[in-house]
Design goal:
single chain, 412 residues, Rossmann fold, 8-stranded mixed sheet, 16 strands
């Protein structure tokens, strides 16, 4: 089976360093390991690092039957900007132009956003009689209502209406939709104004199983320079300092917990609000801001961490979602403390492997309770891995997704 992955924004297997692959990256690995041919079309612009992987269109062979196709654009500095909209338009134009020279695939998997790129994938599928699966992992364009400043909400309404109209057409023309949660699939069906079809399914965002215990040996190598010890009670955040996260309550909690010398907050990532967080935490010795970190550093940090914190903003994009960080913490047997209610809160409550806070005072109570009750923390860690293995194990979930794609391509 020849599979095209059309997705922008994820780390690529061709990126520098030990890359943490995500949804499309892990799916691509399973596909080529099962003998399928994979072509991944993405941007030459690195969304998280805000720099170019290449200054021109470039094809990179990962394996004999696995190729990454980089499509060059000007890029953008801010995630919410005109420059990013222009980036999406140029990316879709390049996809439509460049794919004329490639052999026709058996099936295409395209992420819903950016909208222009998923529409280009649908148009290709229509013209060439190729089934196209749309992966819904963002509530696009609804999320614009929550990321734009208050003064811009009225101005953005016409743009959201236009995008939603285009999205409705894209989803109706798709062969099928796959949602990262049942709620996300329901959103797609609602926008498309259709009932659930034969191949509309749910596949949770998942992570590869891995034994991270051995990486504890390299903890000092990567983290002693930050004043950390592997027996510290580490509250870890892996993400980016953007508008989807509310970091301030964590800093407030760190200030209230500074008397506990070995409770440490390690907040990893880069982003537009990083300078603000640095300023807020400048006098706190228990807050570590290492910036962007690579896979080996992440694994050693997870091996020593007690709690994973997921400070998602209270928005429908997260109350109905199980984003990357959630599954990543669970895969490392780390209980998750959430800043938002919804499906993630329901899951950690059901499996007794986490908690929810609404402000810094509640966060302090949760952390102090777990700090003083290590038996409960150990039990929560075991339950976290149980939840991971049942619903977020990438070998299981993306193995099923690979078989699903074969079934769709054969029937269509």
């Amino acid at each position: 089976m020849n599979v095209w992955i059309v997705s922008d924004g994820e780390p690529l297997p061709t990126d520098e360093g030990n890359v943490r692959l995500r949804r499309m990256g892990l799916l691509s690995e399973i596909l080529y390991q099962n003998g399928h041919e994979v072509h991944w079309f993405s941007s030459a612009f690195h969304h998280y690092k805000k720099k170019h992987r290449s200054n021109y269109d470039k094809d990179i062979k990962v394996k004999n039957n696995y190729t990454v196709h980089l499509l060059n654009t000007k890029g953008y500095r801010n995630n919410v900007s005109i420059a990013r909209i222009l980036h999406h338009k140029e990316l879709s134009r390049k996809f439509s132009l460049n794919t004329k020279t490639y052999d026709k695939p058996d099936i295409i998997v395209a992420t819903l956003a950016p909208l222009e790129l998923s529409r280009a994938a649908i148009q290709y599928g229509e013209y060439n009689n190729v089934p196209v699966i749309i992966d819904i992992r963002d509530l696009w364009p609804e999320i614009f209502n929550e990321v734009v400043p208050t003064w811009g909400k009225t101005l953005i309404k016409p743009y959201i209406w236009i995008c939603k109209s285009k999205l409705s057409t894209i989803l109706r023309k798709s062969t099928a939709m796959i949602g990262v949660t049942p709620q996300f699939l329901d959103y797609g069906l609602s926008v498309a104004k259709i009932n659930k079809r034969e191949f509309d399914e749910v596949f949770y965002t998942s992570y590869k199983p891995r034994d991270i215990s051995g990486h504890l040996n390299s903890f000092n190598k990567h983290w002693s320079k930050f004043g950390l010890k592997n027996n510290d009670f580490i509250v870890v955040f892996l993400g980016n300092f953007g508008r989807q996260f509310v970091i301030e309550p964590i800093i407030e909690a760190a200030d209230k917990l500074k008397a506990h010398k070995n409770i440490k907050f390690v907040l990893c990532g880069v982003g537009e609000s990083l300078d603000k967080i640095k300023k807020l935490s400048s006098n706190l010795e228990n807050v570590v801001l290492p910036g962007w970190i690579e896979e080996e550093q992440i694994l050693s940090l997870l091996a020593a961490s007690s709690i994973g914190i997921a400070p998602y903003r209270n928005s429908i994009n997260f109350t109905k979602n199980t984003p990357n960080k959630f599954g990543e913490y669970l895969s490392a047997s780390i209980p998750v403390v959430l800043g938002v209610n919804g499906i993630m809160a329901d899951l950690v409550s059901e499996y007794e492997c986490g908690d929810v806070y609404s402000d810094s005072d509640e966060l302090v109570k949760i952390l102090e309770s777990l700090y003083s009750n290590r038996k409960r923390l150990t039990k929560m860690s075991e339950s976290a891995y149980q939840l991971y293995n049942e619903k977020f194990n990438a070998d299981k979930v993306y193995g099923e997704l690979s078989r699903y794609l074969q079934e769709v391509s054969m029937k269509k």
